[in-house]
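Now read this:
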Amino acid sequence: MKIINLGKKNSIFNHFVSELRNVKIQSDSMRFRRNLERIGEVFAYEISKGFSYDTNKITTPLGISQQSLINEKPVLATILRAGLPLHQGFLNYFDSSDNAFISAYRKNKKDGDFEIKIEYMSSPNLEGKTVILCDPMIASGASMVLAMESILLKGNPKHIHVVGVIASTEGLQYLRENSPVKNWTLWIGAEDAEMTSKSYIVPGLGDAGDLAFGEKV
């Protein structure tokens, strides 16, 4: 597993992440969604650098231009519902890609604890494909591992790019120890050291799904 932390380099990317975290700015749900979308666009650009390319001849009004163009279409996958704006950022750039959606939820127990469950997955055949799997927050890492297991039920991808905006140190360790795939890269925007007993990242940003789409009952 290779981890690439875009937040370690100074760029406009860090401004988008800081606005996601800022309690005064994040109360604007439209701006929160747009920042997730813009972050997805930056990740898409960076991930595209590692794809394979072919040289193509493009006819212009005045002649022929040779351009290097991506020769594959990644499949874009996300975990509902918080991942939707981030997913849209990827789709803005990889606009001809097929898409996969994974429904995961917390099943509460009587003792106050919970476990992550996968409810369903809608996906094309993933055999030999490059998959980009995104979710804004990688807290415990459990939902991401379950999502990766679900992906393998749809075929054996050539490579999986796992993307999270903010990850906990504990979650990253869990992914290292429990990932069901070998050929994968982890992209994050920030690593936070703490996590609460309810699996909220500290300082984190709160509940990304609620901030993007409103509180759930």
The mean pLDDT is 93. Helices lie at 13-21, 29-48, 84-93, 142-152, 169-178, 208-213.
